[in-house]
């Protein structure tokens, strides 16, 4: 980037909104996936939509790639800077703009922290349903980019279910409004396309959220099983009985040990722990919880506990939500993956993961959203042992291949980002990816917005698959292939 | 008019001559007569026909069973009807995983009949399920009262395969409920009225059938009171599956509330509802009240039907607007509106007055952030735009259309902004 541009950026965001010294930039060279690092040329910290627009207009005019960033908690390298590009941090756009309880809508800026939304509406008995484990620090803008889920999306849906509208700065600097406060706006569901697009279609500067009334009663059950096979059978029986719990989570023994060491959640020491949460009217929950207990007993649960207070329930969840970070208690390093399988494939996939781990000489802890088949295998390793890091990476990708072979997905909630883009070709055919690429070109013809993410071999708009032929813009020196 | 000879031969080659016939008057789309009807037997034939049409400049109107073919603006051209009627199979019901993969020409009822064998359902109470196809349902984004609890089709669809005008069969999403790999094209196809691609198959998450159901109804003197009750119910701890408000010109508004739960759960919620409503005593009624939306289509074609979308707290306002406008134009009306703010209006009377009333209502509703989409127009209202204001994203919508259907082969002119 031409350094003459820094004054132009500074004119938009002021002195305090521009970071350009190497010491400052180091903070932004990676997101939650720290094994990918790229130093950005500058970091911009706008405080409003007009500043975002001003920055993006400069980027568009000068053909500078940009990456939007929320809290940087992403686990797929989605907010990894792009070489010769800038980072636009939305952290200072952190205001809750409007709370409309009668219509169950909240309008926020993208830097608002997920849990703050619930914090604002909780006194009136509402909550914001998507609850990724990082919800106390991750931003709504990041959640929109990744279509974040969480334990309770089994019943309540993902971020996309709860985002009704967006104000977006497109990569050419224009501002558009996608969706809105009402449910059905005339036209294509572009808000639905934007959510989960990992920052490749523009930058969300306002988000209209739907909030949900907190149910009358929430009950959380812990059941200890000899292994994940029995626990998995219990999950299938719960679903077959016609129940839709708010959450069904599973942890294996290694994950239980780590969580216990970290937060002392008082989990039983068992082969597999099932956590089932039901919510709704008291009479309904009581009736269904009895059925859940009977199903767990029938499938070999040797200990069943129902949290008796909010404090107990909070502790149960604290252990689950701390499970990733807790791996540091039992391993110097770990890789967390995010594959999805049809739930019925669980026994077969779990036994394959165990076999692959044994062959690689590595331990794999398993934490997963059992209700929807979203696995989070944690591959444990020590980077100081020669070859272990590479072996761990290879194993984690092999696990994703297992998920695909079972008819699943390479990511359930963390996104593709930088980490899994080379696996997209295994999940989708070339025509599938081309169709997505065309949609991308409608939003971002010059491919300036987070250009190196999601797609394995990004092509410029108008370029066709096959032998590489430089795009006319590239030949003219106007655009660069990243 | 097409040069029938050579183009017909090429279309017949693409789809199979036995699957191409000359159109009849009954195949017209909003009064626009097509020349041919193609009924491919499989996705490959469908994609091949579409590619051939795209190459030869032939406009294509996708059709399921035609229940909602008159929704949207009349097409600028409608050379070939591309029927999905023969793509009518349920491909896979992974009941233990709560997912189903179905071809787009399958009727909703046929799908539900398959799902019920394992105590499950597609949680969408759409119009005319016995005839409506999955493809048509998705393309028109139809939804009923269950949307309150289970979301719209956009929240139920998890995968889609689209035939694009260049002959590509492109899939997005997958067969698992939780999946964020790649762009969410299932949502793009939902409600796109077949203007971006032809849906050939879809994957849905399905839900268990309820243990028990009960519907309770109550009436109020006026809309203001009804609005207050509806908001109180929405703000309560009740876990109802649907809440709709019905009203006819000159009548009192009535509300229906659907509970789906265990017997104990329903009993407890019924008590809570009675406590909440105080003097307004709800009575148990037959489940047939949930057909009220569909019954708005029953009268002859003289009545206009519109879909209204407003905020949940704006229901009384739109009803009062409607009452005032209809009275001044001497029109009859019926309204069925869900607690989500999405409603269906039937407006009947002299055509000039109908047109004026709909335009006035649309201006009012758009003024406070809502929308009025006209679904069925009497012939005299053919020039009235179906969609209303699509907002400042229209250029972006046109760019998406340009990328996926650059020659405007699919449903030309039927969508917003003449897309």
The name of the CATH topology of the largest domain in chain A is Uridine Diphospho-n-acetylenolpyruvylglucosamine Reductase, domain 3
**Low-confidence runs of chain B (pLDDT<50, min 5 residues)?**
none
Number of strands of chain B: 19
Question: Major β-sheet of chain A, in short?
Answer: 7 strands, antiparallel
Q: Count the helices of chain A. How many?
A: 18
Q: Determine the N-to-C terminus distance of chain B.
A: 21 Å
Mean pLDDT of chain B: 95
Q: What's the number of structural domains of chain B?
A: 4
Residue share in β-strands of chain B: 15-25%
Shape of chain B: globular
Distance from N terminus to C terminus of chain A (CA atoms, Å) equals 14 Å
Please identify the structural class of chain B as seen in this structure.
alpha+beta
CATH fold group of the largest domain in chain B: Uridine Diphospho-n-acetylenolpyruvylglucosamine Reductase, domain 3
């Amino acid at each position: 980037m031409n350094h003459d541009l820094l004054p132009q950026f500074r004119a938009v965001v002021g002195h305090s909104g521009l970071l350009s010294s190497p010491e400052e930039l180091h903070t932004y060279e990676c997101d939650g996936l720290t094994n990918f690092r790229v130093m950005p040329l500058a970091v911009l910290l706008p405080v409003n939509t007009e500043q975002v627009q001003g920055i993006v207009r400069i980027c568009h005019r000068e053909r500078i790639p940009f990456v939007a960033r929320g809290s940087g908690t992403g686990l797929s390298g989605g907010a990894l800077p792009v070489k010769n590009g800038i980072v636009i941090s939305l952290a200072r756009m952190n205001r809750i703009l409007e709370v409309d309880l009668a219509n169950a809508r909240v309008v926020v800026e993208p830097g608002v922290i997920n849990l703050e939304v619930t914090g604002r509406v909780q006194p009136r008995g509402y909550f914001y349903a998507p609850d990724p484990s990082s919800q106390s620090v991750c931003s709504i803008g990041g959640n929109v980019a990744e279509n974040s889920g969480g334990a309770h999306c089994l019943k309540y849906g993902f971020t996309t279910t709860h985002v009704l509208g967006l104000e977006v700065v497109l990569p050419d600097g224009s501002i558009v409004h996608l969706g809105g406060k009402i449910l059905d706006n005339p036209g294509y569901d572009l808000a639905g396309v934007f959510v989960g697009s990992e920052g490749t279609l523009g930058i969300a500067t306002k988000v209209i959220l739907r909030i949900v009334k907190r149910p009358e009663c929430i009950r959380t059950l812990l059941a200890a099983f000899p292994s994940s096979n029995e626990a998995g059978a219990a999950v299938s029986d719960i679903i077959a009985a016609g129940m839709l719990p708010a959450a069904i989570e599973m942890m294996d023994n290694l994950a239980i040990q780590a969580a216990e060491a970290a937060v002392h959640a008082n989990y039983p020491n068992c082969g597999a722990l099932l956590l089932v949460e039901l919510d709704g009217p008291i009479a309904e929950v009581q009736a269904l919880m009895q059925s859940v207990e009977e199903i767990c007993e029938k499938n070999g649960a040797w200990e069943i506990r129902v949290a008796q207070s909010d404090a107990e329930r909070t502790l149960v969840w604290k252990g689950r939500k701390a499970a990733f970070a807790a791996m540091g208690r039992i391993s110097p390093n770990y890789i967390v993956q995010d594959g999805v399988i049809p739930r019925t494939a669980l026994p077969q996939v779990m036994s394959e993961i165990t076999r692959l781990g044994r062959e690689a000489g590595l331990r794999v802890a398993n934490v997963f959203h059992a209700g929807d088949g979203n696995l989070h295998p944690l591959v444990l390793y020590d980077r100081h042992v020669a070859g272990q890091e590479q072996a761990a990476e290879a194993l984690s990708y092999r696990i994703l291949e297992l998920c695909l072979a079972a008819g699943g997905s390479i990511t359930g909630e963390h996104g593709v980002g930088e980490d899994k883009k080379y696996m997209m070709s295994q999940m989708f055919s070339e025509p599938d990816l081309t169709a997505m690429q065309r949609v991308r070109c409608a939003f971002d013809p010059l491919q300036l917005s987070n250009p190196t993410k999601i797609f394995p071999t990004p092509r410029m708009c108008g370029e066709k698959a096959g032998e590489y032929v430089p795009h006319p813009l590239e030949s003219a020196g106007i655009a660069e292939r990243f | 008019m097409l040069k029938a000879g050579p183009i017909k031969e090429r279309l017949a080659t693409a789809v199979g001559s036995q699957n191409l016939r000359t159109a009849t008057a009954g195949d017209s789309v909003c009064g626009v007569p097509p020349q041919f009807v193609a009924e491919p037997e499989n996705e490959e034939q469908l994609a091949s026909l579409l590619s051939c049409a795209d190459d030869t400049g032939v406009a294509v109107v996708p059709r399921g069973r035609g229940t909602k073919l008159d929704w949207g603006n009349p097409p600028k051209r409608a050379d070939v009807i591309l029927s999905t009627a023969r793509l009518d199979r349920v491909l896979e019901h992974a009941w233990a995983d709560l997912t189903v993969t179905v071809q787009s020409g399958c009727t909703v009822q046929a799908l539900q009949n398959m799902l019920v064998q394992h105590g499950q359902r597609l949680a969408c109470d759409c119009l005319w399920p016995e005839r409506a196809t999955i493809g048509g349902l998705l393309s028109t984004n139809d939804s009923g009262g269950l949307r309150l609890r289970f979301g719209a089709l956009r929240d139920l669809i998890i995968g889609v395969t689209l035939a694009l005008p260049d002959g590509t069969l492109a899939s997005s999403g997958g067969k698992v409920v939780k999946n964020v790999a790649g762009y969410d094209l299932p949502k793009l196809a939902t409600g796109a009225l077949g203007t971006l691609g032809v849906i050939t198959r879809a994957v849905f998450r399905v839900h268990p059938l309820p243990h028990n159901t009960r519907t309770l109804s109550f009436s109020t003197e006026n809309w203001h009171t009804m609005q207050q009750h509806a908001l109180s119910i929405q703000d309560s701890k009740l876990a109802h599956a649907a809440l709709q408000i019905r009203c006819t010109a000159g009548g009192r508004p009535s509300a229906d509330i659907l509970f789906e739960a265990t017997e104990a759960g329903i009993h407890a919620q019924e008590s809570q509802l009675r406590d909440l409503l105080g003097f307004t005593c709800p009575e148990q009624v037959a489940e047939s009240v949930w057909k009220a939306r569909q019954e708005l289509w029953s009268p002859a074609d003289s009545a206009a039907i519109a879909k209204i979308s407003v905020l949940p707290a704006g229901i009384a306002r739109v009803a009062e607007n409607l009452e005032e406008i209809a009275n001044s134009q001497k029109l009859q009306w019926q309204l069925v509106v869900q607690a989500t703010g999405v409603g269906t209006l039937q407006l009947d009377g002299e055509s000039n007055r109908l047109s004026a009333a709909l335009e006035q209502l649309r201006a009012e509703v758009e003024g406070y952030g809502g929308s009025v989409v006209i679904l069925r127009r009497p012939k005299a209202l053919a020039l009235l735009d179906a969609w209303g204001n699509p907002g400042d994203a229209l250029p972006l919508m046109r760019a998406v259309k340009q990328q996926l259907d650059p020659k405007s082969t699919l449903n030309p002119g039927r969508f917003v902004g003449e897309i």
